[in-house]
Design goal:
Elements: E1 2-3, H1 11-17, E2 18-22, E3 28-32, E4 43-56, E5 70-78, E6 85-97, E7 101-113, E8 116-130, E9 134-144, E10 151-162, E11 168-180
Parallel strand pairs: 1-4
Antiparallel strand pairs: 2-3, 4-11, 5-10, 6-9, 6-11, 7-8, 7-10
InterPro entries: DUF4489
Pfam families: DUF4489 (PF14879)
Protein name: DUF4489 domain-containing protein
């Protein structure tokens, strides 16, 4: 497995080996002129980002719902150098509450490519009783095997929540691991 820098560009490959057009979402429908991919090991790229949201207000009670979704964090990765990349997006979150209560938070992953936002991977719900002044960890992953490549930003958002006490915070990391799928 070869690890490449995200900043490394494959301009020669794109200039000589690909011709394509953009769809309305910005995904390329490219044709690779060579008949096979490289026979050496596949390349991979790892990028990490921070997650930080809060303190959150009281959510889910009549009249006190702020505008949702609430952004938690994001990570950007450039997969233009990879042949048919699969991207594993993982969110490792720490949910901190100031009081004992039953909280429910629903998260989603949003992919942004060329200014086009699309929800991917369904929803992920945290619902546990939390003791006063405590933290609970919550981890979820999604493997994006779309045909789109380029500079992609994956964001994590809170899409719905029930928080009966203000002051909940969310922290952690969001990572994206892109791996080349050899032909």
């Amino acid at each position: 497995m070869n690890i490449i820098s995200e900043d490394e560009r494959c301009d020669d490959f794109r200039r000589e080996g690909r011709r394509g057009r953009r769809s309305s979402c910005g995904c390329s429908s490219s044709t690779i002129t060579s008949t096979s991919c490289s026979t050496e090991g596949g390349k991979s790229i790892l990028r990490c980002g921070c997650a930080n949201a809060g303190p959150l207000p009281i959510l889910g009670t009549q009249g006190l719902i702020p505008s949702l979704p609430i952004p938690v964090g994001s990570v950007s990765i450039d997969t233009s150098n990879l042949c048919k990349p699969s991207v594993l997006v993982t969110a490792n979150l720490l949910i901190n509450t100031p009081a004992a209560l039953l909280s429910s938070l629903t998260f989603r992953i949003v992919r942004c490519l060329d200014g086009c936002f699309q929800s991917v991977g369904g929803s992920f719900t945290f619902s546990d009783p939390i003791e006063a002044l405590s933290s609970n960890s919550f981890t979820f992953s999604f493997c994006d095997c779309s045909s789109c490549s380029g500079c992609i930003t994956y964001g994590v958002e809170v899409t719905s929540a029930t928080l009966l006490q203000a002051g909940t915070t969310i922290g952690g990391t969001i990572s994206a691991l892109a791996v080349e799928n050899l032909c």
